[in-house]
Write a structure and sequence with these properties.
Mean pLDDT: 78
Strand content: 5-15%
Helix content: 25-40%
Largest sheet: 3 strands, parallel
Number of strands: 8
Radius of gyration: 25 Å
Distance between the termini: 63 Å
Order of helices and strands: EEEHHEHHEHEEHEHHH
Oligomer: single chain
Structural class: alpha/beta
Shape: globular
Length: 380
């Protein structure tokens, strides 16, 4: 690690910075492209960030290149066969076995060609040949919105064929391996999900797979979450870097997400909001994910590792209409309650009154809003 090294290929030398014992320089990339017409764009415009990253590497070499998802925008791959060209509607139609086999073979060839053309671009290839890479995939490495599609197209025979072709190409081009020989450091020994962990001197890198087992109601399976917890319980370096293809922290857009379902012309964007950790469908899982990390409090409000606030104890924020009694409904997310008996709340007074509720500090889930002032008519 303390000496210059590299390799020779076809008569050309490629230096590699392998010193990871000191101030290691890491580069992070994601979202390499666009959904439509990506590879036909002007190279100077499309690969401008790759060229800039290469210039920085020449000035001060990187030891590692982290790919956080969407290394490939493979959405146009679905046009490889007539049976798949109107994806995702195509997945809802029944296909003859012969047609399905032809479509699967066309998809495999299309993914191969897409990776070949995307990675052979000069600015991309120059950097990838000189900096070791670690990658985790996201939806566009398969197709837009994979796992969050509105009608469950992922579970159809054509959807499974699409996923199998994308997974085969992902393992080959992004991990240099095949399905029967998964890369070392994987979190799930069964290979059902492709998350991984790599330990370097003073640094642990963990990248959970947020796509292989995703559905509209979950992001990771219970087995995947258990494997992640077991990896953390086994110990880690002083610094832990989590590579999450979907950011754990961000704006809450649940109301926008619900509104999109009421407008058919906006449903095509609804999968982008359902992808988020803080979607109303994934809120409870988001809190469990935060609690899995060292330094987070038991209630789900991170104390040191994240600056975020969970809604599991407070409920929604609302303003009552003056002069009326109101009934309070729980938030859309699941409410975490303490074990033991639940005291009742029989408070009934006008909405304009402000009086502490005796059950606020107890396990009464209907009495947690606005710091204990509970102008409501409700019972537990």
């Amino acid at each position: 690690m303390d000496s210059a090294t590299g390799y020779r290929f076809e008569g050309r030398d490629y230096p590699v910075c392998t010193d990871v014992s000191g101030e290691m320089r890491i580069a992070f990339v994601s979202c390499n492209g666009e959904e439509h017409g990506d590879l036909s764009r002007d190279p100077a415009e499309r690969d401008a960030m790759w060229a800039r990253l290469g210039a920085r590497h020449r000035a001060a070499p990187f030891s590692l290149l982290l790919h956080g998802g969407d290394q490939l925008y493979a959405d146009e791959v679905t046009g490889a066969h007539p049976a798949t060209r109107d994806w995702p509607r195509a997945a809802r139609r029944a296909l003859a076995p012969e047609t399905l086999a032809e479509a699967a073979d066309a998809l495999r060839r299309a993914y191969w060609a897409r990776y070949r053309d995307a990675l052979a671009r000069p600015d991309v290839a120059w950097l990838a040949a000189r900096v070791p890479s670690l990658a985790i995939w996201d939806d566009h490495d398969i197709c837009d919105g994979w796992g969050s599609l509105l009608h469950g197209e992922e579970r159809t025979p054509l959807g499974r064929a699409l996923f199998a072709a994308a997974r085969e190409a992902y393992l080959l081009f992004q991990h240099a391996t095949v399905a029967g020989d998964l890369p070392p450091g994987r979190l799930d020994p069964s290979g059902a999900q492709l998350g991984w962990r790599v330990d370097l001197p003073g640094l642990t890198l963990i990248a959970p797979d947020l796509r292989s087992e995703r559905t509209r109601r979950r992001i990771m399976s219970p087995e995947a979450r258990g494997a992640l917890r077991a990896s953390l319980a086994a110990g880690a370096a002083e610094r832990v870097l989590l590579i999450s293809s979907v950011p754990l922290l961000g704006p809450r857009l649940s109301l926008v997400e619900r509104a999109m379902r009421l407008t058919p012309w906006m449903e095509k964007y609804e999968d982008d909001l359902r992808d988020q950790w803080q979607s109303y469908a994934h809120r409870a899982e988001w809190r469990r994910m935060l609690r899995a990390w060292p330094g987070c409090t038991r209630r789900g409000t991170p104390s040191r590792c994240f600056r975020a606030r969970s809604t599991s104890r407070r409920g929604p924020r609302w303003r009552p209409r003056r002069g009326r009694s109101i009934s309070w409904w729980p938030p859309a997310s699941r409410i975490a309650r303490r074990p033991g008996p639940m005291p009742t709340c029989s408070a009934r007074w006008p909405a304009s009154a402000r009086r502490p509720c005796p059950a606020t500090r107890s396990a009464c889930a209907r009495c947690r809003a606005r710091g204990g002032s509970t102008p409501r008519s409700a019972t537990s």
